[in-house]
Amino acid sequence: MRMASVFVWQNPTMAPETHGLSYNTVDHWEISRSSLKLLKKLGAGQFGEVFEGIWNDRTAVAVKTLKPGTMDPKDFLREAQIMKKLRHAKLIQLYAVCTTEEPIYIITELMSHGSLQEYLQNKGASLQMSDQIEMGAQVASGMAYLELQNYIHRDLAARNVLVGDNNVCKVADFGLARVIQTVALKWFPVKWTAPEAIHENKFTIKSDVWSFGILLYEIVTFGQMPYPTMTNFQVVQQLPKGYRMPCPLNCPKYLYDIMYECWKDSPADRPTFETLQWKLEEFFDMDLSSYDDANRY
Ligand code: AMP
Known about the structure:
With 297 residues, this protein is α+β, with helices and mostly antiparallel strands. It contains 10 helices and 9 strands. The protein has a 5-stranded antiparallel sheet, covered by helices on one side. The protein has a two-stranded antiparallel sheet with strand order 1-2. A two-stranded antiparallel ribbon has the order 8-9. Residues 42-43, 45, 50, 62, 92, 108, 110-111, 114-115, 118, 159, 162, 173 line the site of adenosine monophosphate.
């Protein structure tokens, strides 16, 4: 079969970006399972397994297999229609789906270093503060695009950001949290979720901003569990009383101030992702050596 990827050259020094695996999949994103070879298991998530795969013996892809019962295929297809339209350099590109039988396959671009959480935990020591801030700015940039599209992620966390070469970070799994059936939820990400989302099920872009503050904490602590000494129950009890995580060791004040803004009680008082992006980019552009101990908590 003819290789028919749609390549969009954004920058001549970068690898081409692939939008959809074939012309057939531009309108009909369904591809045949037999055109995929699953090569190596990359990991197992809550809802299934992820493999490195190859499509039509040529194109390297990531294949997420969803445990049967995780979601209603009809709901997923509806969500996938929206996900296909979301295209941004800092969002994982959906390439194709296999939904005619279970397990559902979700085929996306492959990221060489896997999840940001594992990356931070394994390679954290080699990262500079400027790298960490740049990673935060990249996630904010992907989220600012979702914000513009009036789209909510609902499960923003370092485990749902993927890392490629040169610390490139892309937001993954947007839209999936909405269609995952609650019965499949053995685990709810309490420590990442805004209070109004936990208590009143009010998920908005501002609850994503709260989660982004937690993600910044993960970045600066090299993938440490948020609220490390507290249980989920304690977190739920303490947040309405005004408790917030203290500034992590070696975290610049400027960065902690950004996190803290994300954790404002009133969703309307939290910054937009657009603001978060420029603040982080501005910080990244500054000479970090001027940040002496006086600027650290
Ligand atoms: P998940 O089910 O999304 O939590 O994925 C489980 C693991 O598979 C992640 O922690 C990553 O290490 C890996 N993974 C998921 N998606 C990709 C991808 N597109 N490229 C590379 N690795 C991935």
